[in-house]
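Obj.: predict assembly geometry.
Materials: sequence records (below).
Method: joint structure prediction, all chains together.
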Amino acid sequence: MKIYSRLKIIVFSLISLGLVFYPSFSAHRQLAKAENNYPPLDKLSLPILMYHHVKPLTGREDQMQIGLTTTDQSFANQLKVLRDNGYQTFFAGEIPDLLAGKMLASQQSVALTFDDGYDDFYNFAFPLLKEYQFKATVYIIYNAINAPGYLTENQIKEMVASGLVEIGSHTLDHVDLKKASSAEARRQIVLSKNQLEARFKIKVKTFAYPFGYFKPETISLVKTTGYTSAVSVIPGDIQTKDNLFSLPRLRPKNLMGEKFKVELLQKYHFQK
Ligand SMILES: [Zn+2]
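Observations (raw structure tokens):
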């Protein structure tokens, strides 16, 4: 009996201690969660895959169109490879937060990006993204919204509401920012952001250079406009604070299975 009553005292004391310390412990945890403080990273191995068209080939396409097309079949296979290998998808606009330690990167992180805002993204890629619950960033040419072959305003609204699609800017008219005058470059970079934000009630954080063309002045303009990242067409998968405005990307094309895994997801990791 004596042992039991001692045990009772011990158990009661432990519970009391828990009652005293648990609130402060959980408050501390909530604070940590609110600040989202993870160790900042010098560099992050995160392949940003660059797509244009995702659709079946009809046989009527020219070489250029074929080069810009990933068939819906290849795309489905690539998503399966990503899932089977435990990849977690991030928006391109989240890369600065991952590097700063505001978000936690996964061991296998990847970003799916789609340039130009073609309507085949809605028809063929978006249903697969929903199936896999994978995130993607679409770089929209603002003045092409509702044009034949491009995404409509309603499609964009629906995709934004799904939480799976981030909208980035790809200028107003897909101009060559290396050749454009400073005033024109500014208009393309600033107005596309402002108008996308107003029309879709979103924050546009990321930018893609049309044709991958930019010069140092373009980068300063993108930075001062308030974007926090920009993607290039430089091949690679190592993301750092120094290349936030020229993030390298990789072209998945129609690679499938092991080939996709080795050539896209693993090839550049050796540069770490
Ligand atoms: Zn483009």
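Conclusions so far: The chain has nine helices and eleven strands.
To do: check interface contacts against the pulldown list.
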